[in-house]
Automatic annotation (TrEMBL):
This is Uncharacterized protein. It comes from Butyrivibrio fibrisolvens. The lineage of its organism: Bacteria, Bacillati, Bacillota, Clostridia, Lachnospirales. It comes from the Bacteria. The chain crosses the membrane at residues 20-42, 48-67, 79-98, 104-128. Keywords: Membrane, Transmembrane, Transmembrane helix.
Length: 157
C-alpha cells in the first residue's frame, strides 16, 4: 500500500511540475482552459461524445508538449510562435472549404478540434528535430570538454 501511495505522490508531483510549466505561459494556459471548458460543454450539450473526447485528448497532448518545451528550450515563446503561425495558416486554408451558412455547435467543435490536431501536427516534427539538435550539441560539448580535460591532465604530468 505504501508503494502505491509513493507512486501516486510521485505522479502528483510530476503533474504539479507540468502544470506550473504550462501556467508560466499565460496565453497558452488560457487557451488550454478554454479548450477544456469547451470539451466539457460539448459533453453536456449533447454533441457526439467522440468530439469532446478527441478535444480533451488534444488538450492533454498540448499540455504535455508545452511542458516539455518549457523545460527544454531557452526561448520557448519564439519556438511556439513560429509553430502557431504555421498552424493558423494551415487551419485558414482548411476553413476556406467549410460552409459557414449552416453554422452549428458541432461545426465549431470540429473546427476547434481540427486546430488542436493541426497544432500538434506542426509542433511534433519541429519539437523532435529541435530535440535532436540539442542532443547532438550536448554530445559534441561533452566530447570537447572530455578532450580538453584530457589535454590539461597531460600538461600537468
Amino acid at each position: 500500500m505504501k508503494k502505491i501511495l509513493s507512486y501516486i505522490k510521485q505522479d502528483l508531483e510530476l503533474f504539479k511540475e507540468i502544470m506550473i510549466a504550462v501556467m508560466s505561459y499565460k496565453v497558452a494556459f488560457v487557451i488550454v482552459v478554454i479548450l477544456f471548458i469547451l470539451g466539457l460543454v460539448a459533453d453536456v450539450k449533447g454533441v457526439n461524445a467522440i468530439y469532446g473526447t478527441l478535444e480533451l485528448v488534444g488538450v492533454a497532448i498540448i499540455i504535455a508538449l508545452l511542458a516539455v518545451i518549457k523545460m527544454c528550450f531557452d526561448k520557448p515563446v519564439q519556438f511556439l510562435a513560429k509553430v502557431a503561425i504555421f498552424s493558423i495558416m494551415w487551419l485558414g486554408s482548411c476553413l476556406a472549404l467549410v460552409d459557414f451558412n449552416d453554422f452549428t455547435l458541432l461545426l465549431a467543435f470540429k473546427i476547434i478540434t481540427a486546430f488542436e490536431y493541426i497544432f500538434i501536427g506542426c509542433l511534433l516534427p519541429e519539437l523532435v528535430s529541435k530535440m535532436e539538435e540539442l542532443r547532438e550539441k550536448a554530445i559534441q560539448d561533452n566530447a570537447l570538454s572530455t578532450e580538453k580535460s584530457g589535454i590539461s591532465s597531460e600538461n600537468h604530468v
